[in-house]
Amino acid sequence: MTGHVTLVGAGPGDPELLTMRAARVLSEADVVLYDALVDPRVLDLAGRARRLFVGKRRNRHAVSQETIGKLLVRFARRGERVVRLKAGDPFVFGRGGEEMLACTEAGVSVSVVPGVTSAFAAPLLANIPVTHRGVSRGCVVLTGTPREAYESLLPRLVSQDVTIVLLMALDARAAISAFAIANGFSPTHPAAILCGASTDAAATWIGTLQELPHAVIPEGPPGVLVLGETVRFASGLREIRFENRRAGVIA
Question: pTM surpassing 0.85?
Fold first, then answer.
């Protein structure tokens, strides 16, 4: 017997941002392999399915990527309906492509349920549009790790009217600030750090590139770094502070 693997995006955190298809697939699952950032309330939708934690947080890996691929194949070959539950969207720096290849190369059928990525959800819930007529003609999503990932692209974006969103970049914010300014970005270029999007721990820091290295951010929740003129929509850069938010409403 051969089962099936579904790569499911759990969204940025709030279970209400899960898609209806994701909820249905979870309810039908026999086994769920889930990430560290998946809200426990999303897992509740899996009913009696077996649940295996395979999360990764800042170099702390519960299970290697190679092992995750082997587990997906093993369970599917037993005839089980397998859900690989990933925070955000499986294919936005989520290594979903690697897991899809592991299944297809083993002859296991696999499908994908897209999720709401924090690259867009975090800015939007902080009232920061990623595109806006006359301000930002596009959005570029980068990763802050390794350095080469942003160093090869940031210099090309200096004169472009785009919003730049960096994931997994908070620890590198000082290096990113220094590199961007050294490569043509204005020290007063708007910047934002958005932590814990869509959760009770949500918080926003608004400032500029030159102030970015000194930003004090809360411990725990993951965050997104945003650079661009659309950041001005959040607070007009009048203040630099944290604002507790819930469901996109600034207190």
Answer: yes
Same domain, 127 and 15: no
**Last residue within a domain, chosen from 113, 145, 161:** 113
pLDDT one-digit tens code per residue, 105-159 = 999 999 999 999 999 999 999 999 999 999 999 999 999 999 999 999 999 999 8
Active site residues: 35, 56
Claim to verify: residue 130 and residue 92 sit in the same structural domain: no
Total domains in the chain come to 2
**In which residue ranges of the chain is pLDDT below 50?**
237-251
Cβ within 8 Å of residue 82, ≥6 positions away: 3, 4, 5, 6, 29, 30, 31, 32, 33, 72, 75, 76
Say yes or no: 102 and 220 in one domain.
Answer: no
